[in-house]
Design brief:
By secondary structure, the protein is an alpha/beta fold. It folds into two domains: 37-154 and 292-367, Response regulator (Rossmann fold), CATH 3.40.50; 157-285, Response regulator (Rossmann fold, 3-Layer(aba) Sandwich). The chain is 46% helix and 20% strand. The chain has twelve helices and 15 strands. It has helices spanning 2-26, 51-70, 90-104, 115-128, 156-170, 185-200, 219-228, 239-251, 268-273, 294-307, 313-332, 337-345, and strands at residues 37-42, 78-83, 108-110, 131-134, 149-151, 175-181, 204-211, 232-235, 257-260, 281-285, 350-352, 355-359, 365-368, 370-376, 379-386. The chain is globular.
């Protein structure tokens, strides 16, 4: 009996030890989470209504990581990108940001292109002391979330006054209509910036109207626009609704140009708008493939060779974001966000493919020039380059 009891206890102890070992192993890094790699998490939509921003952004990020790894990586370690799809939804980006930090153990997140989505992820990043570096968020209230939050894009607050000055003094468009998308945080934040600049530059607001994202019938808005007899329309929303508004304007024989921010920078603008947007829709951004600098030209050639298409603002800014993060880690001699974020904040006159970038005292990017683009023969074409005033 004693022998059987001893044997039984021996078996039980072995089972307990095995369970302990398995539990211990479950907390160890996976093969992609070893000390030999540095991981970055991609924030962007690959499906859904804003996929036109996220898909090229992902390509720019992947290209930068491949180039860095080909040169030996960072601090002797390879970079690994993790590419989830947030579908342009707040709940999805919150879940993805949490996963990146708690499960994947990224040292930084690159993105999102949209201001509202960036804010959601930035709150999570700041709380967990992980760097987030947006390659597209242009609206207000982003870096104010905390000192782990950065962005590399032409800010609306800097671009809009120069664009409005160009509208009024170069084009002679002084009587201006504005349409806002009320359920779009980007649009509701951008409209006041335009209104303030128009008033300060001596323009007149002839009409203020509104829509909602995903609306498809803009008959009433264009009828009011026609009656207002404005010189130009400022639309502060995204490319899908912009194309449909211009289609309705063409249907009603209204010959008017539309001005907007980089929310109009989507490849589907031309597909959805056709001839209605050709040389009629003009938007500002911080990147153009026309008249590139030598650094930008090199990037464009490599991107076209790799993907068979021209890069856009988002691919260029995500590429730069990864390269700037790599520089900060190298300068800090560490991939610890608590250490390299201080080096990141010191960035000055960085010669990126999306233009020169300096971070001010508040970590906001100072970028110039402003590129004005339109659709010409189905592709984006440079209208003008204007300096930030």
């Amino acid at each position: 009996m004693q022998t059987k009891k001893s044997a039984k206890w021996a078996i039980i102890m072995i089972m307990v030890m095995l369970v302990s070992l398995v539990a211990g192993c479950s907390n160890k890094p996976t093969s992609t989470n070893t000390p030999d790699v540095i991981k970055l998490g991609f924030l962007g939509a690959k499906t859904g209504s804003v996929a036109n921003y996220g898909l090229p952004a992902e390509k720019g990020m992947k290209m930068a990581i491949e180039e860095l790894n080909a040169k030996g990586g960072i601090l002797g370690k390879n970079l690994v990108g993790i590419y989830e799809d947030n579908k342009g939804e707040s709940a999805d980006i919150a879940n993805i940001a949490t996963k990146y930090i708690t499960v994947d153990k990224v040292v930084a997140m690159v993105g999102d292109p949209c201001t509202g989505l960036t804010k959601v992820a930035a709150e999570i990043a700041q709380k967990n002391q992980v760097v987030i570096f947006s390659g597209g968020a242009t609206g207000t209230g982003v870096v104010e979330i905390g000192d782990y939050v950065f962005r590399n894009t032409l800010l609306d607050s800097m671009a809009v006054p120069s664009v409005v000055d160009w509208m009024i003094n170069t084009k002679g468009w002084k009587k201006i209509a504005i349409i806002t998308s009320l359920n779009n945080g980007y649009s509701t934040a951008l409209t006041p910036v335009f209104k303030d600049a128009i008033q300060k530059k001596g323009g007149t607001i002839a009409l203020e109207d509104s829509i909602n994202d995903k609306d498809t019938d803009f008959t009433a808005q264009v009828t009011k626009l026609k009656n207002a007899q404005a010189d130009v329309l400022v639309f502060t929303g995204y490319y899908q609704e912009a194309a449909l508004i211009m289609n309705e304007a063409k249907k009603q024989n209204l010959n008017i140009s539309m001005i907007g921010g980089d929310g109009l920078y989507g490849q589907d603008l031309a597909k959805l708008g056709g001839t209605a947007v050709e040389e009629k829709v003009i938007f500002y951004c911080g990147f153009s493939t026309d008249k590139p600098t030598p650094e930008t030209a090199k990037f464009i050639d490599a991107y076209k060779a790799k993907f068979g298409e021209n890069p856009d603002m988002f691919s260029a800014q995500y590429y730069d974001a990864v390269m700037i993060l790599a520089k900060a880690m190298t300068d800090a001699k560490s991939a610890d966000p608590k250490l390299f974020r201080a080096e990141l904040a010191k960035l000055k006159d960085y010669p990126g493919v999306s233009g020169s970038t300096t971070f001010g005292a508040n970590r906001e990017p100072i970028k110039s020039p402003v590129c004005l683009l339109t659709v010409k023969n189905g592709a984006f074409s440079l209208v003008d380059k204007i300096s930030v005033k």
